[in-house]
Amino acid sequence: MDTLNIPCIYLKQGKAVGDFFAALGVDEGQTGEDPIRVAEKIRDREDASALMVFDFSDDDASHEAAIGNIRDIVRTAVLPVYAAGNIQRPEDVKKLLYAGCSRVVLNFSKDSNRDMLEEVSKRFGRQKIGVYISDYKSYMIDRELIESYAGLIFMNEDEDEQEKLLSETELPVMIHINSAGICREYNSRPEGGSAEVSWSDLKIGPDGLVPCVVQDYRTGEVLMLAYMNEEAFRRTIETGRMTYWSRSRQEIWVKGLTSGHFQFVKALSVDCDNDTLLAKVAQVGAACHTGNYSCFYRDILKKEYEEANPQKVLEQVYQVIADRKANPKEGSYTNYLFDKGLDKILKKLGEESTEIVIAAKNPDPTESVYEISDFLYHCMVLMVQKGLTWDDITQELARRE
Asked: pLDDT per residue over 114-146, tens digit each?
């Protein structure tokens, strides 16, 4: 039976505080750790498969603030993030999932949560919805409902209750061990999943290694080239973290274990000859030991060309706009907009959207190209003003597929 370790963050008033029961009594103004820093520490733990956030907010306003904290935690952790606490309505589930959480846990001690399980399961997918039960008896009472619409069962540590529950269900079961500040998930698979191609299917080089090309999963940018032996291949599959064989040190090498610049697997493929691997990863920090994001930062030959990758083009323009805000330039139209403030930016967006409508009535599509480009530019000014990134937008669009 696979067991996953899932460290916890107990979130109260924007801080990561104490343990579960201590957090219940934490008052506003008490000190705690920065939850982003705690998320970084958890991300860097080799045994962490996911991260669990308990929201101890007291009202709707603090719950909204907590969702913002959780969104930042998701960005930082890279690992799957589960959320529980102060979930009152389907809208809360939606906001947490849109914040990037992989799962949201409903507390079945609340009748309202039992009543909405079927609705949110059908709306968002049962694999994204977990339920908290107090004991085995509670499971048996709601067994049909849970087995039909939940993708996870969550309960506090109790060895006897745990064994009885695991004997009755094939659903993943997550046990909260408060004394250790972690959850353990049973009946599950690690984030890396299982491989459809085994090591024996690959054409191994005379040195016992297979080369692996590594790409950023978002942009397709090539980050590095490394090598795997059988153990590195197996660990990568099992842990979901890129693991290689260091030819210089002659040892297994978990990327990021020393630097903190981990690579989390999003996809692992093999080429048509079965002799080269391609990994698409979520890269934390820089891939190259020089501090450059990619190891391929030195040009041997470069001819002039226009970047054709839409995400790269948009990201490059966004970065120029962000730099203008951070480092104002005299005479810059972008700085003029920032100086005038949000109302001016919104006014320009309204004007540009109208220009798109007018241009679309013109049989020549070229005018629409100009107006849509102007609109996107002003959208990016708004994004920078509001602290939004293209990652926020593309992730939201991806969730809507």
From this structure: 999 999 999 999 999 999 999 999 999 999 999
Angle between helices 60-77 and 90-98 (to 10 degrees): 30
| Torsion region of 219: left, alpha or beta (phi above 0 gives left; psi -120 to 50 gives alpha) | alpha
Q: Using CA atoms, how far apart are residues 212 and 364, in angstroms rounded to an integer? A: 47
Predicted model pTM: 0.76
Q: Can you tell me the distance from the alpha carbon of 55 to that of 57, in angstroms, rounded to the nearest whole number?
A: 6
Give, in order, the Cα–Cα distances in Å from 134 to each of 137, 140, 171, 277.
Answer: 8, 11, 16, 46
Crossing angle of helices 366-386 and 310-326, in 10° steps, is 50
- To 10 degrees, the CA torsion angle through 295, 299, 300, 306? 130
**Span between the terminal Cα atoms of the chain, in Å:** 33
Of 232, 223, 222, 243, whose CA–CA distance to 202 is shortest? 232
Residue 213 exposure: Cα atoms within 13 Å on the Cβ side: 11
